[in-house]
Specification:
The structure is a single chain. The protein is mainly alpha-helical and 229 residues long. The chain is built from 9 helices and no strands. It has helices at 2-32, 34-58, 62-85, 88-93, 99-113, 115-123, 128-150, 156-202, 217-224.
């Protein structure tokens, strides 16, 4: 599961690097001035905070988390499309209109910080969560750092294509992650049914005999001791 979920973390890293390394320096600073970069960049975390509230409601169920992750992947996909379908001069010409790009990136970050992490806890409960979160930060950090360096040497078109392709891969990977999770849950449910069925068929009448199949397996073993054939 982790290899599929990692694609969204990579997507987050390459998308945020696009804003921090390229948009801030080449678009906002050039068209609006360096002083504008600060509050423009602040729009990303502010939007993430505001977006976390509806996402927390949506993420109360597995299907809601799945939808939230798809929304996040789609948001970054839109960022990629805008990046490769427009020129730097066109983006500079938007002037304050470029705000919408930062709002999109903030909405994507909201999914990364809330729904994405909640889904990891569902997939990797208990002690496994520690390794899962380490993996999350490893991939997102590695993607961000690598992109920050690489973006210095490639065009805006290339950046957009990279974000777009990883977004497509992320959306497919999210679907695959939940498909595997659903299959695993069904398999475990089937195992429980088999265990209960075996217990029911192997108990004979006598003191402390099981009266209902709904009694837990451990309780049955304790109650039946010498009464199990």
């Amino acid at each position: 599961l982790m290899r599929y979920m990692s694609t969204f973390n990579i997507l987050f890293g390459v998308s945020l690097a696009f804003a921090d390394q390229y948009m801030n320096a080449e678009i906002v600073a050039e068209s609006l001035g360096v002083r504008t970069v600060g509050w423009m960049t602040a729009l990303v975390p502010v939007t993430a905070v505001l977006g976390s509230y509806p996402l927390s409601i949506l993420g109360r169920t597995p299907s809601g988390k799945r939808l939230g992750l798809w929304v996040g992947g789609s948001i970054f996909l839109i960022v990629g499309v805008i990046a490769f379908s427009s020129t730097p001069d066109q983006l500079r010409g938007l002037r304050y209109g470029i705000v919408f790009m930062y709002i999109l990136l903030g909405a994507g970050r909201a999914v990364f910080e809330t729904t994405n992490k909640a889904a990891l806890v569902d997939f990797f409960p208990g002690e496994e969560a520690t390794a899962a979160f380490s993996n999350l930060h490893t991939w997102s950090g590695l993607a961000f750092g690598t992109s920050f360096i690489v973006y210095e040497y490639i065009s805006q078109l290339a950046m957009g294509v990279i974000i777009f392709l990883i977004a497509i891969l992320s959306i497919v990977s999210i679907w695959r992650s939940y498909a595997i999770s659903d299959e695993t849950a069904l398999a475990k449910e089937g195992e429980k049914v088999v265990v209960y069925d075996k217990v029911d068929r192997s108990v004979v009448s006598g003191p402390g005999a099981m009266e209902s199949v709904e009694i837990g397996t451990m309780s049955v073993v304790e109650q039946q001791n010498s009464h199990v054939v």
